[in-house]
């Protein structure tokens, strides 16, 4: 460590945060943001390393709050597909940092066979420790069986010892889905602990019914995936889960929202003042049913590259609806739902941890669909606040924030190129965005003051990332201030 005021300074940047955007220099010391100023004097810069942004956007490092990595697919929804998870903590986070992301939250998944949540987290953490990670990371816990006596003390321990302050549950997949009764029980526990409930909302019964009928008719090719998971299935489960959340009076975040009907139900709940939050993902802004059908043929599984659940929308209208929601505040976060499953196994999910930021930058910010401030809120600050990482992450506040920074290319500097899978740093054998054009990409990715990615080259190593305990959500609070009618809401539920 040098004795000068800064270790690294970034000059000539257009610094965008969720709050504002302007020309600032950033001074970094000991891995933290130390100062923001119009300019630094040569004395202030001293012998610090100087990085010239050349007028490009400089944004807080991306936070990907929804990634599947190093998951065991012999259980859970991947079971029987024969698939394995192509990315471990090393390759997945390497891909992340090459795409401007400096923090990720991955899923420790309890299966029906695992009674102990703590054991699940310890086992999963061992996988992360074995390979190391290129970026900072944390876990959400997926709960697939509700053993009330075990879960209560374990959830307490997860919050206190691990800083895991979010749990995810499912309304579909036989291996994971919970009954409404169990969902309410969990929501009440989550409320007691100040933990955020994440919901995968698709009606398991509608999907099972349609799948059975499709199978009876021999309609089993990958393109029929969309037919088995119609938007109405997502709309129904979303509406139902909002009812349960209102009954229990607890915040819920809906993951990977794809259907306009689900977005509308969420918006309506928000308008009534309920703490309902939503996430959407790049696949729902850039893919449609047409992509599922494009390659359809009896022996051709090319279209399995576009499979995910819920599936992409029917047409461009659905995409426009989601863009509106990104602009108008319906969505708090934009995550990848990175599912690194090789396509020969007909994967359920798409890889996207590296393309997430560049897609929204090129197709959202550069096209004027969203402002730079909105870009930062959706890719970083929203997740930091929702999942209890703010302002250490998701901000550039002197003295408070880690120096996690993405520096983009100045306009016109990067030759526009068509993406191919060879550009990417994951271990997956395809990208659903093959052939899409990009005119910008992260030029530098900085993790706690260390340059990890520079003009197409990786500089750091797996092991530079740190596990992070998270605190209580700064956004998702139970709606204590709202006036409630005890004849409509069972307020006695919360008496100890
Ligand atoms: C905001 O976007 C959502 C879709 O996500 C939509 O349902 C709603 O009508 C929009 N609200 C306004 C006021 O435009």
TrEMBL record:
Domain Amidohydrolase-related intervals: 57-452
Record PTM text: Carbamylation allows a single lysine to coordinate two divalent metal cations.
One Pfam family cited in the UniProt record for this chain: Amidohydro_1
Keywords noted in UniProt: Hydrolase, Metal-binding, Phosphoprotein
A cellular-component GO term for this protein: cytoplasm
EC number annotated for this UniProt entry: 3.5.2.2
InterPro entries attached to this UniProt entry: Amidohydro-rel, Hydantoinase/dihydroPyrase, Metal-dep_hydrolase_composite, Metal_Hydrolase, Metallo-dep_Hydrolases_sf
Reactions catalysed, as given in the entry: 5,6-dihydrouracil + H2O = 3-(carbamoylamino)propanoate + H(+)
Molecular-function GO term, any one: metal ion binding
Cofactor requirement: Zn(2+)
Residue numbers bearing the N6-carboxylysine modification: 168
EC supergroup of this enzyme: hydrolase
NCBIfam families: D-hydantoinase (TIGR02033)
Similarity section: Belongs to the metallo-dependent hydrolases superfamily. Hydantoinase/dihydropyrimidinase family.
Protein name, as recorded: dihydropyrimidinase
């Amino acid at each position: 460590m040098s004795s000068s005021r800064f270790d690294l300074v970034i000059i000539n940047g257009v610094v965008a945060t969720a709050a504002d955007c302007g020309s600032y220099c950033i001074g970094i010391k000991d891995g933290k943001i130390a100062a923001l100023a119009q300019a630094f004097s040569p004395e202030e810069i001293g012998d610090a390393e100087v990085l010239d942004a050349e007028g490009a956007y400089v944004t807080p490092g991306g936070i990907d709050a929804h990634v599947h990595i190093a998951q065991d697919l012999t259980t859970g929804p991947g079971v029987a597909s024969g698939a394995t998870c192509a990315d471990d903590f090393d390759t997945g986070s390497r891909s992340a940092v090459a795409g401007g992301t400096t923090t990720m939250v991955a899923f420790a998944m309890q299966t029906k066979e695992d009674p102990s949540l703590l054991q699940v987290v310890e086992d999963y953490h061992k996988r992360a420790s074995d390979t190391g990670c290129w970026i900072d990371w944390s876990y959400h816990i997926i709960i697939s069986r509700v053993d009330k006596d075990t879960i209560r003390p374990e959830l307490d321990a997860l919050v206190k010892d691990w800083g895991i302050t979010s749990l995810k549950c499912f309304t579909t997949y036989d291996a994971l889905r919970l009954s409404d009764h169990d969902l309410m029980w969990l929501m009440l526990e989550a409320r007691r602990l100040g933990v955020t409930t994440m919901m995968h909302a698709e009606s398991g019964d509608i999907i099972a019914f349609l799948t059975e009928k499709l199978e009876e008719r021999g309609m089993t090719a990958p393109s029929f995936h969309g037919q088995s998971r119609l938007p109405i299935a997502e709309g129904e489960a979303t509406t139902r889960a909002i009812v349960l959340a209102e009954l229990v009076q607890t915040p819920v975040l809906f993951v990977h929202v794809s259907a306009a009907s689900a977005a509308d139900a969420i918006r309506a709940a928000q308008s009534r003042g309920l703490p309902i939050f939503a996430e959407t993902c790049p696949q729902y802004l850039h893919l449609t049913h047409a992509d599922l059908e494009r390659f359809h043929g009896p022996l051709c599984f090319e279209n399995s590259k576009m499979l995910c659940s819920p599936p992409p929308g029917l047409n461009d209208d659905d995409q426009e609806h989601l863009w509106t929601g990104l602009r108008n505040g319906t969505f708090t976060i934009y995550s990848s739902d990175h599912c690194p499953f090789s396509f020969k196994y007909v994967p359920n999910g798409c890889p996207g941890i590296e393309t997430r930021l560049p897609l929204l930058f090129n197709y959202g910010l550069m096209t004027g669909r969203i402002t730079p401030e909105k870009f930062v809120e959706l890719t970083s600050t929203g997740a930091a606040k929702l999942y209890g990482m703010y302002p250490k992450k998701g901000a550039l506040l002197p003295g408070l924030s880690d120096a996690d920074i993405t520096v983009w290319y100045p306009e016109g500097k990067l030759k526009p190129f068509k993406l191919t899978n060879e550009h990417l740093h994951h271990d997956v054998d395809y990208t659903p965005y093959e052939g899409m054009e990009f005119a910008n990409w992260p030029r530098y990715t900085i993790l706690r003051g260390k340059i990890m990615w520079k003009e197409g080259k990786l500089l750091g190593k797996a092991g530079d990332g740190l596990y992070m305990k998270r605190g209580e959500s700064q956004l998702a609070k139970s709606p204590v201030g709202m006036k409630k009618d005890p004849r409509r809401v069972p307020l006695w539920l919360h008496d100890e």
